[in-house]
Amino acid sequence: MITNNVGIVNEMCIYDVAIIGGGVIGCNIARYLSKYNLKICLIEKESDVACRTSSANSGIVHAGYDAVPGTLKAKFNVRGNEMMDEISHDLDVPFKRIGSLVIAFDEKDMEILKELYERGISNGVPDMQILDGNQVREKEPAVNSKVIGALYAPTAGIICPYELTIGAAEIAVQNGVELMLDSEVVAIKVVHIDVKNIENTSGSVDGINIGKVYEIELKGSQTKIYSRYIVNAAGVYSDKIAAMVGDTSFTVTPRKGEYLLMDKNQGKIVNSVIFQTPSQMGKGILVSPTVDGNLLLGPTAKNIEDKEDISTDRTGLSQVIQGALRSVPDVDLSKVITSFSGLRAVSSTGDFIIGESKAARGFINVAGIESPGLTAAPAIAEYVAQLLEKAGLILVLKDNYMKVRKPFKRFRNLQENELRELIKKNPLYGNIICRCEKVSAAEIVEAIRRPAGARTLDGVKRRTRAGMGRCQGGFCTPRIMHILSQELGIPMEKVTKSGGDSWMILNR
């Protein structure tokens, strides 16, 4: 069930778990917990899942050599990497193990590579090699001729971060998780409720006071929902959510990263993810293919105060260009099709913060999940279930759990004979809406009708790639708006780009 108007939620219902945050972490936790007989809600302040950091990052599945041994980052990076083949298969999300190279330009860089190699060995990363300059150029002819060596990690890969998030959300909703969109949490407090005449939950007994539950107040309505446990996966806002229950043990600083996305005719310049040696601010400017065939450059790393600032500017994008050209000089900058930025949630502890809050029992913080958070997401979900069980939540597996997501048939990936058969069954497959990415009307309709389906232009874009090509929606946007209008039963002037007041048409 998806709830946009949170006022229709049964206020007398007590959830077993309320997950705050619809990014890749929150959605994967919801997916994992949905295999159990639990009443779960997933609360997201935006109009869709994957709206923020989970739609604006590098999409790298890291091998695990960068994290300091013994940290949560190291533990969940390696475990998440191991899980990614199965997860991507179950969620029908494209994933490619193309390997990564951390390149060295001088002997100082080579010393850093040796340190990363030793870290990787300590963390359990398999099959790493330190290559010399000739071996690097044999693998990657376009890399700078001044490169003298590299750390090669074949288990690294690329994935689409928002498709991973959306796929997890679909499985969660299919298995009974209630997705509450446009629902910003503004207050949390502890209350005691008598469960007599209240819908039972898996951990309550009718007519007996269950004691403490959390009352969660949502912005924009009088709705208050109740939950026995809370998982705080609110990204850059996770410190704010924790403070609502009296937990001020950490802070989260947004770290902005700006990117340039290149046309698909640049996507085969490199075969692997190309990194430079890391610094305290991150893994540096990378050059990487994407799973959809583009080339990605970035990100920068700048700590900021504004948790909503996803702007780009000349200074940041110039840094991206300089860094990328240092690694791969032949990138054709005339082929840039768009720029964007995302925010990383950098914790004051320097590591992931995952555990039950000391300030509030049954309140699980999953905070400061910066890189390698995307890689770690499935492993973090697995661990959070263990933490909840340790905190007292009873986990009983469902008999009818749906583990595998229904495959999404994409026009651009189908053979001619497959297309002919599809068009016979559904003529909308023969109506191409987005020429750049070869997206049919049938795909857009399905993206809207699926569990946790699209409600906005950006929602359609993330699910189908309609509007992500060379023209960036210049031709297909009105046609997508028309389909959204028809499917959602709303006038065209009510169709938005990304929810809220991001109107596409002014109704004067």
Provide a compact summary of the structure.
The chain has 508 residues and is α/β, with parallel strands linked by helices. It has helices at residues 24-33, 72-90, 107-123, 133-139, 161-174, 238-243, 314-327, 373-390, 416-425, 441-449, 457-464, 477-488, and strands at residues 2-3, 14-20, 40-43, 60-61, 95-96, 100-104, 129-132, 149-153, 157-159, 178-180, 185-194, 209-218, 224-232, 252-262, 273-276, 286-289, 295-298, 302-303, 336-347, 353-356, 363-367, 432-434, 439-440. It has three domains: 2-53 and 163-251 and 350-390, FAD/NAD(P)-binding domain (3-Layer(bba) Sandwich); 94-155 and 255-342, D-Amino Acid Oxidase, Chain A, domain 2 (2-Layer Sandwich); 413-494, BFD-like [2Fe-2S]-binding domain (Arc Repressor Mutant, subunit A, Orthogonal Bundle), CATH 1.10.10.
Explained architecture:
With 508 residues, the protein is α/β, with parallel strands linked by helices. It folds into three domains: 2-53 and 163-251 and 350-390, FAD/NAD(P)-binding domain (3-Layer(bba) Sandwich), CATH 3.50.50.60; 94-155 and 255-342, 2-Layer Sandwich (D-Amino Acid Oxidase, Chain A, domain 2), CATH 3.30.9.10; 413-494, Arc Repressor Mutant, subunit A (Orthogonal Bundle), CATH 1.10.10. The protein has twelve helices and 23 strands. The protein has helices at residues 24-33, 72-90, 107-123, 133-139, 161-174, 238-243, 314-327, 373-390, 416-425, 441-449, 457-464, 477-488; strands at residues 2-3, 14-20, 40-43, 60-61, 95-96, 100-104, 129-132, 149-153, 157-159, 178-180, 185-194, 209-218, 224-232, 252-262, 273-276, 286-289, 295-298, 302-303, 336-347, 353-356, 363-367, 432-434, 439-440. The strands form five sheets. Strands 1, 2, 3, 10, 11, 12, 13, 20 and 21 form a nine-stranded mixed beta sheet that branches. Strands 14, 16, 17, 18 and 19 form a five-stranded antiparallel beta sheet that branches. The chain has a four-stranded mixed beta sheet with strand order 7-8-6-15. Helix 1 crosses helix 8 (373-390) and helix 10 (441-449) packs across helix 11. The chain is globular. The model is unreliable at 1-11 and 200-209 (pLDDT under 50).
